[in-house]
Design goal:
Elements (H helix, E strand, L loop, with lengths): L2 E3 L7 H9 L9 E9 L4 H10 L1 H7 L2 E6 L8 E8 L2 H13 L1 H10 L3 E10 L9
Parallel strand pairs: 1-3
Antiparallel strand pairs: 2-4, 2-5, 3-4
């Protein structure tokens, strides 16, 4: 699981994000799902450890592209995840299979107590092409 910590000046943020989202130099995902998890401050370390422990499960079930945190700003206990899909139908199929998997259910059960709230965005990217820097 790629885990990128953004630098204070943000200089690596855009290139790292673009590389993570592009499936290859010549292709672009149709749908990017962005999930922002605001963690309970006292649960950040435990949540990160669970993410590391279950990285293989996530990689086997979901088109996970990366997790990003910041070390400056107003909310230092927020983690942003990126997933890419070809379509909404593919997303629905993949998410349903993951939700039925006992390993993923266990990860959700263990990680949920560390999450204050979650926000999700779906970005349709077919109108433009990502350029990998």
């Amino acid at each position: 699981m790629p885990l990128v910590r953004l630098l204070r000046d943000g200089s690596t943020a855009l290139p790292a994000c673009m590389r993570a989202l592009a499936t290859s130099a010549s292709s672009t995902p149709g749908l990017v799902e962005v999930r922002e998890y605001t963690l309970k401050p006292e649960g950040v370390a435990d949540f990160l450890q669970l993410c590391k422990e279950y990285a293989g499960v996530r990689a086997s079930l979901l088109p996970f592209k990366g997790a990003f945190t910041a070390d400056v700003g107003s909310c230092l206990h927020r983690m942003t995840h990126f997933y890419t899909y070809d379509s909404f139908d593919q997303r629905d199929d993949v998410r349903a299979k993951a939700a039925a998997d006992p390993r993923w259910k266990e990860f959700i059960r263990l990680s949920r107590p560390h999450v204050q709230f979650q926000v999700g965005y779906k970005l349709w990217t077919q109108a433009f092409r990502l350029t990998v820097l």
